Amino acid sequence: MRARLLALVLLLLLAGCSSGGTSDDGRITLRFQSLAWQEESVEATRDLVAEWNATHPDVRVEYVQGSWDSVHDQLLTAFEGGEAPDVIHDASDDLADFAYGGHLADLTGLLPAGLTSDIPERSWRTTTFGDGVYGVPFLQEPRVLVANATWLSESGVRIPTPEEPWSWEEFRRITDRLSGPGKYGVAWPLKEPVSATLNLSLSAGGQLFHRGADGKVTVRFEAADQVVPRTIHQQVGTDRSASPTTLGSGGSDTLPGFFGGHYAMVPLGFSYRQQIVQQAPKGFDWQVLPAPAGAGGLAQGVSPQTLSIAEDCPHKKEATAFLGFLLRPENMVRLALGDWMLPTGTRALKDPALHTARHGWAVGTALAAHLRPAPAQTVRGYPEWKDKVATPALQEYYSGAIGLGALRDRLEKDGNLVLARYQR
Questions:
Q1: What is the full DSSP assignment across 75-105?
Q2: For the chain, what is the total number of helices (H) and then of strands (E)?
Q3: Second label for 37, Cα 20 to 30 Å away, from 70, 341, 395, 421?
Q4: What is the DSSP string of 277-321?
Q5: What is the pLDDT of residues 270-288, one digit of tens each?
Q6: Which residues of 12-41 are buried (b: 16+ CB within 10 A; e: fewer)?
Q7: What's the gap between Cα 264 and its chain centre?
Q8: β pairing state of 59-65 and 28-34
Protein backbone atom coordinates (compact mmCIF):
# COMPACT_ATOMS: atom_id res chain seq x y z
CA MET A 1 0.00 0.00 0.00
CA ARG A 2 2.79 2.42 0.94
CA ALA A 3 4.65 1.70 -2.30
CA ARG A 4 1.50 2.31 -4.37
CA LEU A 5 0.91 5.60 -2.54
CA LEU A 6 4.49 6.69 -3.20
CA ALA A 7 4.13 5.84 -6.87
CA LEU A 8 0.95 7.92 -7.06
CA VAL A 9 2.67 10.90 -5.43
CA LEU A 10 5.55 10.67 -7.90
CA LEU A 11 3.15 10.55 -10.83
CA LEU A 12 1.39 13.67 -9.55
CA LEU A 13 4.68 15.49 -9.11
CA LEU A 14 5.77 14.59 -12.62
CA ALA A 15 2.44 15.73 -13.99
CA GLY A 16 2.84 19.06 -12.23
CA CYS A 17 6.35 19.49 -13.59
CA SER A 18 5.79 18.35 -17.15
CA SER A 19 7.42 20.40 -19.86
CA GLY A 20 5.45 22.74 -22.05
CA GLY A 21 4.03 21.40 -25.29
CA THR A 22 1.30 21.84 -27.88
CA SER A 23 -2.40 21.59 -26.99
CA ASP A 24 -5.10 20.05 -29.16
CA ASP A 25 -5.95 23.46 -30.62
CA GLY A 26 -2.35 23.99 -31.70
CA ARG A 27 -1.42 26.49 -29.00
CA ILE A 28 2.11 26.14 -27.65
CA THR A 29 2.82 26.39 -23.94
CA LEU A 30 6.29 27.24 -22.66
CA ARG A 31 7.19 26.83 -19.00
CA PHE A 32 9.37 29.68 -17.70
CA GLN A 33 11.00 29.10 -14.33
CA SER A 34 11.86 32.46 -12.78
CA LEU A 35 14.07 33.02 -9.76
CA ALA A 36 12.83 36.55 -9.15
CA TRP A 37 12.19 36.84 -5.43
CA GLN A 38 12.00 40.49 -4.39
CA GLU A 39 8.45 41.83 -4.57
CA GLU A 40 9.26 44.43 -7.23
CA SER A 41 11.19 41.90 -9.29
CA VAL A 42 8.45 39.27 -9.20
CA GLU A 43 5.88 41.90 -10.16
CA ALA A 44 7.97 43.15 -13.10
CA THR A 45 8.59 39.62 -14.37
CA ARG A 46 4.97 38.53 -14.04
CA ASP A 47 3.81 41.71 -15.77
CA LEU A 48 6.08 41.03 -18.73
CA VAL A 49 4.87 37.44 -18.99
CA ALA A 50 1.28 38.72 -18.96
CA GLU A 51 2.11 41.25 -21.70
CA TRP A 52 3.64 38.51 -23.83
CA ASN A 53 0.61 36.26 -23.38
CA ALA A 54 -1.76 39.12 -24.27
CA THR A 55 -0.01 39.70 -27.60
CA HIS A 56 0.95 36.10 -28.47
CA PRO A 57 -2.21 33.98 -28.19
CA ASP A 58 -0.62 31.03 -29.99
CA VAL A 59 2.40 30.81 -27.63
CA ARG A 60 1.46 30.94 -23.98
CA VAL A 61 4.14 31.29 -21.33
CA GLU A 62 3.45 29.71 -17.96
CA TYR A 63 5.24 31.43 -15.07
CA VAL A 64 6.82 28.98 -12.59
CA GLN A 65 8.37 30.29 -9.37
CA GLY A 66 11.78 28.83 -8.53
CA SER A 67 14.23 29.49 -5.70
CA TRP A 68 17.89 30.50 -5.69
CA ASP A 69 18.44 28.32 -2.61
CA SER A 70 17.78 25.07 -4.45
CA VAL A 71 18.03 25.84 -8.16
CA HIS A 72 21.12 23.74 -8.96
CA ASP A 73 19.86 20.52 -7.40
CA GLN A 74 16.32 21.12 -8.65
CA LEU A 75 17.50 21.62 -12.23
CA LEU A 76 19.83 18.64 -12.04
CA THR A 77 16.91 16.42 -10.99
CA ALA A 78 14.66 17.92 -13.65
CA PHE A 79 17.22 17.42 -16.41
CA GLU A 80 17.87 13.83 -15.45
CA GLY A 81 14.14 13.15 -15.33
CA GLY A 82 13.42 14.88 -18.63
CA GLU A 83 11.14 17.40 -16.92
CA ALA A 84 13.12 20.63 -17.12
CA PRO A 85 11.39 23.98 -17.74
CA ASP A 86 11.61 25.28 -21.30
CA VAL A 87 13.04 28.68 -20.31
CA ILE A 88 15.42 28.65 -17.35
CA HIS A 89 16.46 31.51 -15.08
CA ASP A 90 19.80 30.88 -13.37
CA ALA A 91 23.25 32.41 -12.84
CA SER A 92 26.17 32.04 -15.21
CA ASP A 93 28.46 30.34 -12.70
CA ASP A 94 25.91 27.51 -12.43
CA LEU A 95 25.75 26.76 -16.16
CA ALA A 96 29.04 25.03 -16.98
CA ASP A 97 28.13 21.50 -15.92
CA PHE A 98 24.66 21.79 -17.45
CA ALA A 99 26.09 23.11 -20.72
CA TYR A 100 28.82 20.49 -21.00
CA GLY A 101 26.31 17.85 -19.93
CA GLY A 102 24.12 18.59 -22.96
CA HIS A 103 21.14 19.88 -20.96
CA LEU A 104 21.07 23.43 -22.36
CA ALA A 105 20.45 24.52 -25.94
CA ASP A 106 23.22 26.26 -27.86
CA LEU A 107 21.77 29.69 -28.64
CA THR A 108 24.34 30.53 -31.30
CA GLY A 109 22.53 31.96 -34.31
CA LEU A 110 19.09 31.74 -32.66
CA LEU A 111 18.90 35.04 -30.77
CA PRO A 112 17.79 38.34 -32.31
CA ALA A 113 20.76 40.18 -33.81
CA GLY A 114 19.92 43.33 -31.85
CA LEU A 115 20.10 41.49 -28.54
CA THR A 116 23.34 39.75 -29.45
CA SER A 117 25.09 42.97 -30.45
CA ASP A 118 23.71 45.01 -27.54
CA ILE A 119 25.27 42.86 -24.81
CA PRO A 120 29.07 43.32 -24.55
CA GLU A 121 31.39 40.48 -25.48
CA ARG A 122 32.75 40.34 -21.92
CA SER A 123 29.24 39.47 -20.71
CA TRP A 124 28.76 36.82 -23.39
CA ARG A 125 31.96 35.15 -22.19
CA THR A 126 30.14 34.28 -18.96
CA THR A 127 27.75 31.99 -20.84
CA THR A 128 30.10 30.68 -23.54
CA PHE A 129 31.34 27.14 -23.03
CA GLY A 130 33.47 25.60 -25.74
CA ASP A 131 32.05 26.78 -29.05
CA GLY A 132 28.51 27.35 -27.83
CA VAL A 133 26.48 30.02 -26.03
CA TYR A 134 24.17 28.51 -23.44
CA GLY A 135 22.44 31.46 -21.84
CA VAL A 136 21.74 35.17 -22.17
CA PRO A 137 23.40 37.23 -19.41
CA PHE A 138 20.91 39.97 -18.61
CA LEU A 139 21.34 41.27 -15.03
CA GLN A 140 24.53 41.87 -13.06
CA GLU A 141 25.60 43.59 -9.87
CA PRO A 142 28.91 44.92 -8.60
CA ARG A 143 29.93 44.61 -4.99
CA VAL A 144 29.97 47.98 -3.30
CA LEU A 145 30.61 49.46 0.12
CA VAL A 146 27.42 50.64 1.81
CA ALA A 147 28.51 53.27 4.33
CA ASN A 148 27.09 55.23 7.24
CA ALA A 149 27.38 58.66 5.61
CA THR A 150 27.22 60.58 8.90
CA TRP A 151 29.96 58.47 10.48
CA LEU A 152 32.28 58.92 7.52
CA SER A 153 31.62 62.65 7.27
CA GLU A 154 32.33 63.25 10.95
CA SER A 155 35.53 61.19 10.78
CA GLY A 156 37.00 63.39 8.06
CA VAL A 157 38.22 60.46 5.94
CA ARG A 158 38.54 60.84 2.20
CA ILE A 159 35.38 59.70 0.47
CA PRO A 160 36.21 57.48 -2.51
CA THR A 161 34.62 57.80 -5.94
CA PRO A 162 34.74 55.54 -9.00
CA GLU A 163 37.29 57.98 -10.42
CA GLU A 164 39.42 57.95 -7.24
CA PRO A 165 38.68 54.79 -5.24
CA TRP A 166 40.48 53.65 -2.13
CA SER A 167 43.31 51.19 -2.55
CA TRP A 168 43.13 48.03 -0.46
CA GLU A 169 45.90 49.44 1.77
CA GLU A 170 44.03 52.72 2.24
CA PHE A 171 40.81 50.84 2.92
CA ARG A 172 42.53 48.92 5.71
CA ARG A 173 43.91 52.13 7.24
CA ILE A 174 40.52 53.83 7.10
CA THR A 175 38.62 50.96 8.70
CA ASP A 176 41.21 51.01 11.49
CA ARG A 177 40.71 54.76 11.91
CA LEU A 178 36.93 54.39 12.05
CA SER A 179 37.00 51.70 14.73
CA GLY A 180 36.64 52.18 18.46
CA PRO A 181 35.16 50.55 21.56
CA GLY A 182 32.19 48.50 20.45
CA LYS A 183 32.43 49.87 16.92
CA TYR A 184 34.02 48.51 13.78
CA GLY A 185 35.08 50.17 10.57
CA VAL A 186 33.69 47.31 8.52
CA ALA A 187 31.54 44.20 8.85
CA TRP A 188 32.29 41.45 6.34
CA PRO A 189 29.28 39.12 5.82
CA LEU A 190 31.11 35.99 4.70
CA LYS A 191 28.71 33.14 5.25
CA GLU A 192 29.45 32.31 1.61
CA PRO A 193 33.01 33.63 1.27
CA VAL A 194 34.11 32.19 -2.07
CA SER A 195 32.45 34.42 -4.64
CA ALA A 196 33.14 37.59 -2.63
CA THR A 197 36.81 36.72 -2.25
CA LEU A 198 37.40 35.60 -5.83
CA ASN A 199 35.43 38.37 -7.50
CA LEU A 200 36.98 41.18 -5.48
CA SER A 201 40.43 39.69 -6.03
CA LEU A 202 40.28 40.69 -9.70
CA SER A 203 40.81 44.26 -8.49
CA ALA A 204 44.18 43.19 -7.11
CA GLY A 205 45.10 41.30 -10.27
CA GLY A 206 44.11 37.89 -8.92
CA GLN A 207 43.07 35.04 -11.16
CA LEU A 208 43.33 31.79 -9.13
CA PHE A 209 42.15 29.50 -11.95
CA HIS A 210 44.64 28.95 -14.77
CA ARG A 211 43.78 27.14 -17.99
CA GLY A 212 46.65 25.35 -19.72
CA ALA A 213 47.26 24.72 -23.41
CA ASP A 214 45.49 21.38 -22.99
CA GLY A 215 42.37 23.16 -21.78
CA LYS A 216 42.66 21.83 -18.23
CA VAL A 217 42.28 24.17 -15.27
CA THR A 218 44.52 24.26 -12.21
CA VAL A 219 44.32 26.36 -9.04
CA ARG A 220 47.29 28.57 -8.15
CA PHE A 221 46.91 30.82 -5.11
CA GLU A 222 49.49 33.45 -6.02
CA ALA A 223 50.46 36.82 -4.50
CA ALA A 224 47.73 38.79 -6.27
CA ASP A 225 45.10 36.27 -5.12
CA GLN A 226 46.18 36.79 -1.53
CA VAL A 227 45.67 40.57 -1.30
CA VAL A 228 41.94 40.55 -0.53
CA PRO A 229 41.80 37.57 1.86
CA ARG A 230 44.91 38.82 3.68
CA THR A 231 43.35 42.29 4.07
CA ILE A 232 40.18 40.82 5.55
CA HIS A 233 42.20 38.51 7.82
CA GLN A 234 44.24 41.47 9.10
CA GLN A 235 41.18 43.61 9.67
CA VAL A 236 39.61 40.86 11.77
CA GLY A 237 42.59 39.43 13.61
CA THR A 238 45.23 42.17 13.73
CA ASP A 239 43.53 45.56 13.56
CA ARG A 240 40.26 44.51 15.18
CA SER A 241 38.62 46.87 12.68
CA ALA A 242 36.29 44.21 11.26
CA SER A 243 33.63 42.50 13.33
CA PRO A 244 34.48 38.83 13.93
CA THR A 245 30.84 37.97 14.64
CA THR A 246 29.61 38.74 11.10
CA LEU A 247 31.99 36.34 9.34
CA GLY A 248 29.36 33.62 9.42
CA SER A 249 26.53 35.96 8.52
CA GLY A 250 24.70 36.71 5.31
CA GLY A 251 24.41 40.23 4.01
CA SER A 252 20.94 40.81 5.44
CA ASP A 253 22.11 39.73 8.88
CA THR A 254 24.50 42.69 9.10
CA LEU A 255 21.88 45.36 8.48
CA PRO A 256 20.53 45.70 12.05
CA GLY A 257 24.08 46.28 13.36
CA PHE A 258 24.75 48.70 10.50
CA PHE A 259 21.61 50.70 11.30
CA GLY A 260 22.47 50.52 15.00
CA GLY A 261 25.82 52.24 14.52
CA HIS A 262 28.05 49.22 15.18
CA TYR A 263 29.65 49.15 11.69
CA ALA A 264 30.70 52.09 9.55
CA MET A 265 30.60 50.07 6.32
CA VAL A 266 29.36 46.77 4.95
CA PRO A 267 30.52 45.28 1.61
CA LEU A 268 27.38 44.10 -0.15
CA GLY A 269 25.98 43.29 -3.54
CA PHE A 270 24.41 46.29 -5.26
CA SER A 271 20.88 44.87 -4.95
CA TYR A 272 20.96 45.02 -1.14
CA ARG A 273 20.10 48.70 -1.44
CA GLN A 274 16.45 47.73 -1.72
CA GLN A 275 16.51 46.12 1.72
CA ILE A 276 18.30 49.15 3.12
CA VAL A 277 15.65 51.51 1.73
CA GLN A 278 12.92 49.33 3.20
CA GLN A 279 14.50 48.73 6.60
CA ALA A 280 16.63 51.76 7.48
CA PRO A 281 15.29 53.82 10.39
CA LYS A 282 13.97 57.26 9.59
CA GLY A 283 16.78 59.79 9.26
CA PHE A 284 19.52 57.18 8.76
CA ASP A 285 21.94 58.64 6.20
CA TRP A 286 23.77 56.12 4.05
CA GLN A 287 25.71 56.16 0.81
CA VAL A 288 27.15 53.80 -1.78
CA LEU A 289 30.92 53.73 -2.35
CA PRO A 290 32.98 51.75 -4.87
CA ALA A 291 34.86 48.73 -3.58
CA PRO A 292 38.64 49.24 -3.19
CA ALA A 293 40.93 48.99 -6.20
CA GLY A 294 44.37 47.47 -6.65
CA ALA A 295 46.67 46.51 -9.48
CA GLY A 296 43.62 45.52 -11.52
CA GLY A 297 41.86 48.83 -10.93
CA LEU A 298 38.14 48.61 -10.24
CA ALA A 299 37.81 45.24 -11.99
CA GLN A 300 35.41 42.83 -10.36
CA GLY A 301 34.22 39.39 -11.24
CA VAL A 302 30.51 38.90 -11.78
CA SER A 303 28.25 35.98 -12.52
CA PRO A 304 25.29 37.57 -14.26
CA GLN A 305 21.78 36.26 -14.00
CA THR A 306 20.97 34.31 -17.14
CA LEU A 307 18.12 33.00 -19.24
CA SER A 308 18.65 29.68 -21.01
CA ILE A 309 16.58 27.25 -23.06
CA ALA A 310 16.50 23.56 -22.23
CA GLU A 311 17.93 21.29 -24.91
CA ASP A 312 14.80 19.15 -24.62
CA CYS A 313 12.50 22.11 -25.31
CA PRO A 314 10.48 21.16 -28.43
CA HIS A 315 9.79 24.79 -29.32
CA LYS A 316 13.16 26.52 -29.31
CA LYS A 317 12.16 29.08 -31.94
CA GLU A 318 9.21 30.26 -29.85
CA ALA A 319 11.26 30.18 -26.63
CA THR A 320 13.93 32.32 -28.30
CA ALA A 321 11.28 34.80 -29.43
CA PHE A 322 10.09 35.07 -25.82
CA LEU A 323 13.66 35.80 -24.69
CA GLY A 324 13.92 38.50 -27.33
CA PHE A 325 10.74 40.10 -26.00
CA LEU A 326 11.68 39.79 -22.34
CA LEU A 327 15.10 41.37 -22.96
CA ARG A 328 14.16 44.31 -25.13
CA PRO A 329 16.05 47.36 -23.76
CA GLU A 330 12.97 48.89 -22.14
CA ASN A 331 12.03 45.54 -20.59
CA MET A 332 15.57 44.89 -19.40
CA VAL A 333 15.41 48.23 -17.59
CA ARG A 334 12.17 47.18 -15.89
CA LEU A 335 13.76 43.92 -14.74
CA ALA A 336 16.87 45.73 -13.52
CA LEU A 337 14.91 48.30 -11.54
CA GLY A 338 12.76 45.56 -10.05
CA ASP A 339 15.82 43.65 -8.89
CA TRP A 340 17.86 46.78 -8.01
CA MET A 341 20.60 45.50 -10.29
CA LEU A 342 22.26 46.61 -13.54
CA PRO A 343 21.29 45.45 -17.02
CA THR A 344 24.00 44.01 -19.24
CA GLY A 345 22.59 45.62 -22.38
CA THR A 346 24.36 48.83 -23.39
CA ARG A 347 21.14 50.57 -24.47
CA ALA A 348 19.34 49.65 -21.27
CA LEU A 349 22.29 50.80 -19.18
CA LYS A 350 21.94 54.32 -20.63
CA ASP A 351 18.44 54.75 -19.22
CA PRO A 352 18.33 57.92 -17.04
CA ALA A 353 16.64 56.02 -14.22
CA LEU A 354 19.88 54.11 -13.69
CA HIS A 355 22.05 57.23 -13.45
CA THR A 356 20.51 59.11 -10.55
CA ALA A 357 22.46 59.89 -7.39
CA ARG A 358 19.50 58.66 -5.34
CA HIS A 359 20.23 55.33 -3.65
CA GLY A 360 23.65 55.17 -5.32
CA TRP A 361 22.46 54.20 -8.80
CA ALA A 362 25.07 56.39 -10.48
CA VAL A 363 27.92 54.75 -8.56
CA GLY A 364 26.76 51.34 -9.70
CA THR A 365 26.44 52.27 -13.35
CA ALA A 366 29.91 53.83 -13.23
CA LEU A 367 31.26 50.41 -12.20
CA ALA A 368 29.49 48.50 -14.98
CA ALA A 369 32.35 48.89 -17.48
CA HIS A 370 34.75 47.31 -14.96
CA LEU A 371 32.77 44.10 -14.46
CA ARG A 372 34.41 40.96 -15.79
CA PRO A 373 33.49 37.26 -15.92
CA ALA A 374 33.96 35.69 -12.50
CA PRO A 375 37.24 33.72 -12.27
CA ALA A 376 35.41 30.39 -11.91
CA GLN A 377 33.01 31.11 -14.75
CA THR A 378 33.89 28.24 -17.10
CA VAL A 379 35.48 25.87 -14.59
CA ARG A 380 33.85 22.46 -14.55
CA GLY A 381 33.48 21.14 -11.03
CA TYR A 382 33.40 24.61 -9.51
CA PRO A 383 30.27 23.96 -7.39
CA GLU A 384 31.94 20.97 -5.72
CA TRP A 385 35.26 22.80 -5.34
CA LYS A 386 33.45 25.73 -3.75
CA ASP A 387 31.35 23.67 -1.34
CA LYS A 388 33.85 21.00 -0.30
CA VAL A 389 37.18 22.82 -0.46
CA ALA A 390 37.13 26.60 -0.77
CA THR A 391 34.25 27.51 1.56
CA PRO A 392 35.50 25.63 4.64
CA ALA A 393 39.12 26.65 3.96
CA LEU A 394 38.30 30.35 3.69
CA GLN A 395 36.01 30.24 6.72
CA GLU A 396 38.80 28.72 8.80
CA TYR A 397 41.32 31.26 7.50
CA TYR A 398 39.13 34.28 8.22
CA SER A 399 38.36 33.01 11.70
CA GLY A 400 42.09 32.57 12.43
CA ALA A 401 41.99 28.78 12.64
CA ILE A 402 44.55 28.35 9.84
CA GLY A 403 47.22 30.55 8.31
CA LEU A 404 47.81 31.74 4.76
CA GLY A 405 50.10 28.81 3.92
CA ALA A 406 47.53 26.26 5.00
CA LEU A 407 44.87 28.12 3.02
CA ARG A 408 47.05 27.96 -0.08
CA ASP A 409 47.62 24.23 0.37
CA ARG A 410 43.92 23.54 0.79
CA LEU A 411 42.87 25.59 -2.23
CA GLU A 412 45.60 24.20 -4.47
CA LYS A 413 46.21 20.60 -3.42
CA ASP A 414 42.72 19.61 -2.34
CA GLY A 415 41.12 21.84 -4.94
CA ASN A 416 43.07 20.45 -7.88
CA LEU A 417 42.15 16.93 -6.87
CA VAL A 418 38.47 17.86 -7.11
CA LEU A 419 38.82 19.65 -10.44
CA ALA A 420 40.85 16.82 -11.95
CA ARG A 421 37.82 14.51 -11.75
CA TYR A 422 35.92 16.80 -14.11
CA GLN A 423 38.71 17.17 -16.66
CA ARG A 424 39.63 13.64 -17.59
A1: HHHHHHTT---SEEEEEGGG-HHHHHTT-B-
A2: 20, 16
A3: 395
A4: HHHSPTT--EEEEEPPBBTTBT-EEE--EEEEEBTT-S-HHHHHH
A5: 999 999 999 999 999 999 9
A6: eeeeebebbeeeeeeebbbbbbbbbebeeb
A7: 24
A8: parallel
Helix %, strand %, coil % of the chain (to 5) = 50, 20, 35
pLDDT digits (tens, 9 = 90+) for 379-415: 888 889 999 999 999 999 999 999 999 999 999 999 9
**Rounded alpha-carbon distances, angstroms, from residue 212 to 123, 220, 423:** 22, 12, 12
pTM of the model: 0.89
CB atoms within 10 A of CB 245: 12
AA letter at 243: S
Is there a contact between 51 and 328 (Cβ–Cβ < 8 Å)? no
Please state the separation of Cα 207 from the chain's center in Å.
18
Altogether, the residues listed in the chain come to a count of 424
